[in-house]
Amino acid sequence: MNNEEKTSCFFGHRDVTHNIRPRLKSIIEKLITEDNVTEFYVGHQGQFDSMVYSILKELGEKYPQIRYTVVLAYLPDEHIKELHGEDTIFSDGLETVSKKFAISKRNDWMIGQSGFAVCYVHKITGGAAKFKEKAYKKGLKVIDVQ
């Protein structure tokens, strides 16, 4: 099993329109227990990302073999450091990308590292829908949170 097969990323709309937390937690726990996923990459742009991070933090206590990382699109400030401490990375090459394209570049990086993508997409437009489609095209196992 290569590293990508043990890694999952997440894409979702900024706003969570209904209570998806129990379903999302169940999906993540299944990735850990049945698919042997041990590495998780999540963004930092909205309610979905915050929910994923809180679930991963919670499950990290139950499953100490997992690692979860907030992948930043922009250089971290003090607020980010206070929220996530050491749980962040800023991928190589993003420091030269304009803010307009930073999230897309970061998301492309996460897809490139992953074998799974957990997606919360309830609108056909926007970044979440775009990166869900990219994950399919790159051959990731895409799991819908609906």
CATH architecture: 3-Layer(aba) Sandwich
What's the story with the biggest beta sheet? 6 strands, parallel
- Provide a count of the helices: 5
- Determine the CATH topology: Rossmann fold
H and E order: EHEHEHEHEHE
Low-confidence stretches: none
Q: Give the strand tally.
A: 6
The termini sit apart by 29 Å
| Helix proportion | 40-55%
Shape: globular
Which structural category do the helix and sheet elements fall into?
A: alpha/beta
C-alpha-based Rg, rounded: 14 Å
Highlighted features:
Rossmann fold, alpha/beta, 42% helix, 146 residues
Describe the fold and architecture:
The structure is a single chain. The chain has 146 residues and is α/β, with parallel strands linked by helices. Helix 1 (21-33) crosses helix 2 (47-62) and helix 4 runs parallel beside helix 5. The chain has five helices and six strands, in the order βαβαβαβαβαβ. Helix content is 42%, strand content 19%. The longest helix is centred in the middle third of the chain and has 16 residues, at 47-62. A six-stranded parallel sheet has the order 4-3-2-1-5-6, sandwiched between helices.
